[in-house]
């Protein structure tokens, strides 16, 4: 039987962690969406050097472990004089990491729009940017929303990396409570439940949007 | 109106257009035929610079298409293009499909653009579909919308790249009828097609291509009665006997 007394007695600590996990997720989400969009545009713009920068970013970042990126922000940058608290370092690492995946989702969404759409638009006299805005992007958004939703779910789960550098998130407080009470199983079950409170609605929301977009085709 | 002089084009090492010389005058209907892979689409797509040429000269409506300073959007608004797979915008209604370029390129008001769109929808015979989405239309209807979309820019030239190849046999006729009407009204048309009946009836000239070259160019009565080129004969007998 799950010991709910642990949850009740440490409710404040759980809430602290829960709040920080939400905060880190939301901040990293906004940041990675902006950064990811820029990187995606770098990758498809008809300008070679930008393509290289975009590709380098994506290939480099998504092929190293998240925890290493977070270590760079937490311990690597202080070595060159830039200092972050553990929460900020963790959130920045999370943002930089997720941006690579979001860039890929957005890029592949734009490129999934059939080539004939751009050709039809351009041959009617629209400029490249007009064609993007009125013809390509509205179609790409529908393609991109489901994979973006999945990236957000991953982002929430990945925010647990903050625990590794004492980033005040759910995972961190879970560790704290566990070391105080010498209980592991129950403590982490409650941690898991808090994550589910965040991810299940997200997951359902993504599924709902996906179905609606399919119908709107 | 359209003038190719010694035009060559390569895709990497692949020589897709070889020494093309072709003149198309205002009001002419030129039908391009030839086996698949012979470069018909590439030739047509050079006219509005969807493809760029590697050498030679290409002048359309008095403009050297591949010159550096050319405002390509300016040129393209005068050239309508109809594709094999329609390429209608799936997220827009028929009316929005037709009015997008008139509004954004020509700066027409929505009301004016709508009126023009309705005029051309009447012309292609489906005014009742104005508010439908492309996915709700048959292939033949979609292609007629695509033609109306091209016409709404009041172009001087219309390009057709196998406009009926993706259609069910029973809807091919309705699209060809619209094209015949257009030809009758004096539109300058370049048409890639395998519809020999249409070519025979409507074309002023047939251009036969094979392996990147124009092998023969003749009025339809001459061409269909007795193609000079052996390869044209083989091609014709194959396409007429299947
Ligand atoms: N973008 C491309 N890159 C390389 N080869 C191409 C490209 N587009 C067409 N080709 C080749 O050029 C040749 C002519 O193609 P195309 O003009 O489409 O012929 P057609 O319309 O007569 O069937 C074909 O062999 C085709 O494979
Ligand atoms: Mg072709």
Automatic annotation (TrEMBL), chain A:
A Gene Ontology biological process term: amino acid transport
One MF annotation (Gene Ontology) recorded for this entry: transmembrane transporter activity
ABC transmembrane type-1 domain location: 18-206
Record key words, sorted: Amino-acid transport, Cell membrane, Membrane, Transmembrane, Transmembrane helix, Transport
Residues annotated as transmembrane: 20-42, 63-81, 87-106, 152-173, 185-209
Originating species: Geobacillus zalihae
Membrane topology: Multi-pass membrane protein
InterPro entries recorded: AA_ABC_transptr_permease_3TM, ArtM/GltK/GlnP/TcyL/YhdX-like, MetI-like, MetI-like_sf
UniProt xrefs under PROSITE patterns: ABC_TM1
Subcellular location(s) of the protein: Cell membrane
UniProt similarity note: Belongs to the binding-protein-dependent transport system permease family.
GO cellular component, one term: ATP-binding cassette (ABC) transporter complex
Name of the protein in its database record: Amino acid ABC transporter permease
UniProtKB/TrEMBL annotation, chain B:
MF (Gene Ontology): ABC-type amino acid transporter activity; ATP binding; ATP hydrolysis activity
Keyword Protein biosynthesis assigned: no
Keywords: ATP-binding, Nucleotide-binding, Transport
SUPFAM superfamilies: P-loop containing nucleoside triphosphate hydrolases
Pfam families: ABC_tran (PF00005)
Keyword Ribosomal protein appears in the UniProt entry: no
InterPro entries reported in the protein's UniProt record: AAA+_ATPase, ABC_ATPase_HisP-typ, ABC_transporter-like_ATP-bd, ABC_transporter-like_CS, MetN_ABC_transporter-like, P-loop_NTPase
Family: Belongs to the ABC transporter superfamily.
Name of this chain's protein: Polar amino acid ABC transporter ATP-binding protein
Lineage: Bacteria, Bacillati, Bacillota, Bacilli, Bacillales
